[in-house]
Design brief:
The structure holds two protein chains of two kinds.
Chain A: H1 2-24, H2 26-60, E1 66-70, H3 76-87, E2 92-98, H4 100-111, H5 114-118, E3 128-133, H6 140-149, E4 153-158, H7 161-202, H8 204-212, H9 217-260, H10 272-297
Antiparallel strand pairs in A: 1-3, 1-4, 2-3
Chain B: E1 2-10, E2 16-25, E3 30-34, H1 41-48, E4 56-61, E5 64-65, H2 74-78, E6 81-84, H3 96-106, H4 111-124, H5 140-153, E7 158-162, H6 170-185, E8 189-193, H7 197-201, E9 206-211, E10 214-216
Parallel strand pairs in B: 3-8, 3-9, 6-7, 7-8
Antiparallel strand pairs in B: 1-2, 1-4, 4-5, 9-10
Helix pairs in contact in B: 3-4, 3-5, 4-5
The chains are: A alpha+beta, B alpha/beta.
Chain lengths: 304, 223
């Protein structure tokens, strides 16, 4: 019990010493912490953005319409009837005929190829049925399969394809974020390692004296490890604040944008788990950076 | 307490600091190590404190062969030896109390016991009233006494001192030497390097005379 109490006292003293050391030079410490915080903000902020984009793309899934293009041979009344049939399915909320004449008009109006169409003798477009699946529970694959199997169907065009692409892009973005995280993690280790190296240099005399009166390597190492830990955790806290603040700043324009798209999606903030991760990562990188610096430089200092 | 057997020390630069030193210092003894500058006094003390290792020969301290103390056990080894330096080697950003407490903190002594021992050590050197001051506010002689308090705070069996009075006037020097004498009176073994022959001739302790890396004179054996 006694040994544990003494051990805890020793560590508490070290932690207190490290905090004091950080507080003693507020400006220099703040600069170090800021650099590390920025290195943490970039991957963490990107991650929040990508997560938001993924969540957002998820909400679009069920609402996606798709188009069934009919064979050219199908005439308008038959198409109309078919649209009615499809519309009666349980898994379809609405099926609407887009007659070939309307489609042509629409194409002429919006595509910018209107003049090209004039060169054609007849309307090249088929009738099409716009299908909106019912709710989010509908078995989209089954529905597409059924419609594709219809004799009149030429092609089922899923308008969700761009969503698939977006999702693939987001997956890629996530990977990029992962790589960035690793790289900036290394940067944090280097920054802290360098700071600790300078600190070791500044306290060279002290280290020599402690070695002379019998301080073990562990005893000498500990204050520096705690200093690294303090820088790391301080930077984690600052990074979390920056992200919360940043999200606060973009929340209102983001909501306005979402409203334009008819979505009531709200930006997800930094969850407590994310924040804990940020502090943990900061602390870990700080400790590791200090550990590497200390391992490399403490041995060089020997009393003479 | 200290035994040197045919100890040689050659520095990497090629200078031979000690060439075959043999002597013993018994438990409870106090001796002055003297001789001209560059005779090897500091080197000898460094070998005792394991700051340097001998090139040849055997150094025994408190019945331990220093050659058998691996690097990682040096801290533990040094805790049984109190060291006093010419330039005090105090930490200027810590109070007198914290300076003296340093070796005890390293041994993770309990706070209450630590406080008692630090106070006792400061009292012995007559500086208890300065415990909350910083070293730079003290005179050189007082700083040296803080250094001595630090060396004895953990109650080592052996105290070594390298020119502890090097920067002090004769009166202060005598005071410091008498302080060492008082520690010897209570059983501490002391080896004090000094070139101040005039000072030590007034005191009755054994003298080890080192010249050009060799023990000179008949003083190599305990009296």
């Amino acid at each position: 019990m006694d040994a544990i109490a003494r051990y805890l006292t020793l560590h508490a003293d070290n932690l207190k010493g490290a905090v004091t050391r950080v507080a003693d030079r507020p400006l220099g410490s703040l600069m170090t912490i800021l650099v590390i915080a920025i290195a943490l903000v970039v991957p963490a902020g990107l991650r929040v953005m990508v997560d938001n984009a993924r969540a957002l793309s998820g909400t679009w899934q069920g609402a996606a319409d798709f188009t069934v293009y009919l064979e050219m041979a199908v005439d308008e009344p038959a198409a109309e009837a078919l649209a009615g049939q499809i519309g009666e399915r349980d898994d379809v909320e609405m099926a609407e005929l887009l007659a070939r004449s309307d489609a042509l008009a629409e194409f002429r109006a919006y595509s910018g190829f209107g003049e090209a169409l004039d060169l054609l003798d007849e309307n090249p477009l088929p009738h099409a049925i716009i299908v909106r699946p019912a709710g989010t529970g509908a078995d989209l694959d089954r529905l597409v399969e059924d419609l594709d199997a219809l004799e009149e169907t030429a092609l089922v065009q899923l308008d969700t394809e761009w969503l698939e692409r977006l999702r693939a892009i987001l997956e890629l973005a996530r990977r990029v974020v992962d790589v960035t995280t690793v790289l900036l993690g290394l940067a944090v280790i280097v920054v802290i390692g360098n700071t600790i190296r300078l600190e070791i240099g500044n306290r060279r005399e002290e280290i020599e004296i402690i070695k002379l009166v019998g301080g073990s390597d562990g005893y000498i190492r500990r204050p520096f490890l705690y200093l690294g830990l303090c820088y790391g955790i301080g930077a984690g806290v600052l990074a979390a604040l920056i992200i919360v603040l940043g999200l606060g700043l973009v929340a209102s324009p983001a909501r306005a944008l979402m409203e334009l798209y008819g979505s009531d999606y709200r930006l997800a903030g930094l969850s407590p788990a994310d924040a804990a991760w940020l502090l943990g990562a900061g602390g870990f990188f700080g400790w590791a950076g200090a550990g590497i610096a200390v391992a490399r430089h403490l041995r060089e200092i020997e009393p003479s | 307490m200290i035994r040197f057997e045919n100890v040689r020390k050659r520095y990497p630069a090629g200078r031979e600091a000690l060439c075959g030193v043999t002597f013993r210092l018994e438990k409870g003894e106090m001796a002055f190590l003297t001789g001209p500058s560059g005779a090897g006094k500091s080197t000898l003390l460094k070998l005792v404190a394991l700051i340097e290792r001998p090139t040849r020969g055997t150094v025994l301290v408190a019945d331990q062969n220093t050659a058998r103390v691996p690097r990682r056990r040096i801290p533990q080894f040094r805790r049984q030896v109190g060291i006093v330096f010419q330039d005090h080697k105090l930490l200027h950003d810590r109070t007198v109390f914290d300076n003296v407490a340093l070796p005890l903190m390293i041994s993770s002594l309990r706070r209450r016991e630590l406080r008692g021992r630090v106070r006792a050590a400061l009292d012995q050197v007559g500086l208890l009233r300065y415990e909350n001051q910083f070293p730079l506010s003290l005179s050189s002689g007082e700083q040296q006494r803080v250094g001595i308090a630090r060396a004895v705070a953990s109650r080592p069996q052996l105290v070594i001192a390298d020119e502890p009075t090097g920067n002090l006037d004769p009166q202060l020097s005598l005071e410091i030497m008498r302080l060492f004498g008082r520690f010897n009176d209570v059983g501490t073994t002391l080896l004090i390097a000094t070139h101040d022959l005039e000072l030590i001739s007034r005191m009755g302790y054994r003298r080890l005379y080192l010249e050009a890396g060799r023990m000179a004179g008949p003083a190599a054996e305990p009296v």
